[in-house]
Amino acid sequence: MWMTEWHRVVFSDESCFCFSNDSCHVQVWHRCGDWSNPAAILECITAQKRGIMVWSAIAYDSWSPPVRIQGIMLAQRYMDVLRPLTLPYLQVLPNALYQQDNTHPHTANISQCALQGVQQHSLLISHQLNTFGM
Length: 134
Known about the structure:
The chain is built from 4 helices and 6 strands, in the order H-E-E-E-E-E-H-E-H-H. By secondary structure, it is α+β, with helices and mostly antiparallel strands. The strands form 2 sheets. A 4-stranded mixed beta sheet has the order 5-4-1-6, with helices on one face. A two-stranded antiparallel sheet has the order 2-3. The two termini are 19 Å apart.
């Protein structure tokens, strides 16, 4: 039954955390004389938000240590997490099913080569475990 498989699934993902609500530069454009008309104002973010990206993996009853990612997640940065942290974490979990999303760093050849021998599970394409009926 698919419910028992959930105990074996190890989810991993990264997330960005902004330092504050005003952590990005915003330019405001308006026509002369319309500066007080909210309908005539166009805001444009001109710089990347300041914050940190953190990666981690969780299972039914355990989790990996969170890792700070410098910059954006690229295939090589994913490898920097995968080899020293993810693979050893998966090895201590019996019958683990590794779940990750299908973003480029996760599906790149270098990542897939490193994951050879690891049982992977894609919820995005598995109709048996899809509880949303898609």
